[in-house]
Structure formats: structure tokens, C-alpha cells
Give the backbone structure.
Amino acid sequence: GAVVSQHPSWVICKSGTSVKIECRSLDFQATTMFWYRQFPKQSLMLMATSNEGSKATYEQGVEKDKFLINHASLTLSTLTVTSAHPEDSSFYICSARWGQADTQYFGPGTRLTVL
Amino acid sequence: KQEVTQIPAALSVPEGENLVLNCSFTDSAIYNLQWFRQDPGKGLTSLLLIQSSQREQTSGRLNASLDKSSGRSTLYIAASQPGDSATYLCAPYNNDMRFGAGTRLTVKP
């Protein structure tokens, strides 16, 4: 089946630093990738959708200048949390889809803790 | 924007019980609906995917039904086991996937 990986699986950083999270589709070409955020005991909230080679589309309320998304290749998307603060601490999950496929495949998630 | 509601929010049952988890969604123009399981601190495990043209899907002790026109889906778990303890999420799909808040299930030995 389709496999999506994320790196790192967890990261701890100091407030004010930037953190980059990678999402890779290992065995298929991901024309579209999605980034979700999940706070403790809450559901996954879609942050943004990115199509390869295009600018990401952000959901309402998500700061595009704070959460930089790059989808420069068909197998890699990155999410950079800029000037991270403790309230950005969360579980970030990516998913990927090829073409107009009728489902998405999810990565294992990245736990971000900002001190 | 798709809104997804899951009831109950939490459920605690003794081992062996049959149980039903409910999911409702506001936009019935979906391609399919997927049920996931999430263990604490972990990612998502796909359980069942029902296409919009289907009424139900079964996998082992799990059975999911879909009534697309009324915006409802149910996940039926038969003969529950302690290993079934997890949060169950439903996600209707229409170009992107939106999630409910989940049902946190505890199955006591």
C-alpha cells in the first residue's frame, strides 16, 4: 500500500526558533499533500492543502506566514513553523494523495513541543 | 465547509459488548467516508472505507454503514475487546478529508 513518512517523529525546540517537518510519499507521486494539526484530546484540523509546484491553500485562521509550506517535488512537502511559541506545541500530521484518487494516505505524525 | 459530529464523545463498556459509534456530516456530496482508529500519541490507522455508492463495509468484527443522503455513518464493533480501546474518528471525503472530534472508547476487561 501507499506509504507516507514524516521526519522527525518528535522535536523539542526553544521558543522563537523555527522548526521544519518533512512529509514524504515513499512509493507514489503525491500531487497533493495535506497538513493537519491535532491538539491534545481534540480532532485533526486541516491547516492547508498543497499541490506540487503551487502555493499552498490555507484554511481560515491559519497564518500562512507562520506555517510555511513547500511542496517542490512529487514526493516531498515541508512544513516550517516559524518563530515557534509554546501554543504551537501540537501533533502535526501530513497526508498525501495522487491525482484525483479518492483517498489520502497519512503519515505517522510529528510531535512538536515548544519550550 | 464540512462539519462532522461524532456521538458519543466517550464510551466505556465491559469486554464482550457490541457497540455502535455514530457519525454525522453536513455536506452529503462526498466520494467516500473512512473510519480510523487512533491510539494515544499515535497516528491514524485506517479501519474501513465506504464508497458513496455503498451502503456498508465489513472487516472482521467491524461493520460500517453509510447513509449518504441523510449524512450519517455508523461503526459497529462486535464482541468488543480491551485491545479495541482507542479513539475512533470518522472522515467524509470530498477533495479533502475532514474529521469529527472522535469517540474515545474504553473496553474494560
